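Go through this fold for my students:
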Amino acid sequence: MMHTERQSRRNTGGYGMWKKQWTVMTTVMLAAGALAACGSDSDEKKPGATGSGDGAKPNVTVRFHAQNATFDKTMMAPVIAKFEEKNPGVKIDFVGMTEPTSDEVTKKIDLLAASGEPLDVILLADARSYSQRAANGMLEPLDKFIQKEGFKFEDEYKTDTKWNGSYYALPGTFNQWFVIMNKNHLDEAGLKVPTVEWTWDDYLDYAKKLTKGEGASKRYGTYYHSWADYFLLGMWNQPGKNDIVWTDGSLNMDHPGVRKSLEIRQRSEIADKSAIPYADALSQKIAYRPIYFNQSVSMMAIGSWMIGEVGGTDQFPATFKTVFAPMPRNSQSDPAGHAMSSSNYLAIASTSKQKEAAYQFLRFFSTEGLTMMQKYTTSWKKEDTSKLLDAIIGATKTPQNVDKESLLYVLNNTKPVTLPPALPYQAEVYKLYQEEAEKMLLGQQDIAASIAGAKTKLQKLVDSNKK
């Protein structure tokens, strides 16, 4: 998967500009909603013969907007057919969006909403995108539908989507971070597949031993992509307070995991030279798939969307076996086996005129529908994970190059860690932090100066958003 499937909370857009745009968008959407309410009484109609037994107005069409790179028409066809079979009178119109990144898709959805385009179900790629739109009235609260159906959210889903006391989405795919490793390179260096007991210091030792050669043909032990995630590796494995600005606006920059995150990058990229330098990653616009599959790098921390890729695809054939290791802990005294997890978010537009039918589709798609695809692990607690993994791995070009034993070990011995609900200005939080961390990697300042600089900037940001 690409940035779109990563489900991170990073964005480069400024909150101030976004807030001004939303003032205009919200006004347009409210006006459109008011006109629709005057001209139609279908807003709260229940779709005829739905799976829940509700009877109501037939021939309802629900539009589902999602990035084509995540769910395309071929993947959606059997899912839609099954839903429509179970829910006569409800049709699903899948709108695959071709924008290359999740940020661009979200911007397009915002523009469609502002222009009055009919929106029913929308897919939001990450917690940041979700919380921002829940905060600004774009999304319909789902509490009344959940209460009517009578299920306990925590019994159904792995990811908690509650924001400001209400549910505005159901979680879709489920991504958990781990380490993918080239088995041939491990064997060559005489290294074993790590267990949950290993630490970041062990990881850095592995990276140094896996590094080989010099110059253009040099093979690096590891690589950190340009995402903000890779500047927070020592934070996002924490089961407790694990983000740099907390939900109440208090700074968490004095957490030892912040310094550890920067030490990981400094040691491997600058001291040991066992990781591709950040300056090279930027100047050469390095993408993580090519360098892993052409064996220019031996291991990297990444999300579970790669399960369906390390067995080889048309674009990136796999010529070696991949084994899996848990995310390292910061030190031997830390609890073992914790890793960041994330989901994408299935929501109903507040302007939708088919909310009942849209909710029925949300529930089906976030449970049975996603598992039917046999493409991604899901946030549904009732999925048969082992069976789903067999299907995902079996669909790759060379399934024998995926080590299922180590993968199951990781999944069975890792406790998912989720980040707190994103602040409306979360994108700016990571942008300011990353700007200061980059200065350390580019030799402009040390770790202490980077942390101090980030604290100053972040406090100003928090204060400006309290006004």
User: Anything to note?
Assistant: Residues 1-56 have pLDDT under 50 and may be disordered.
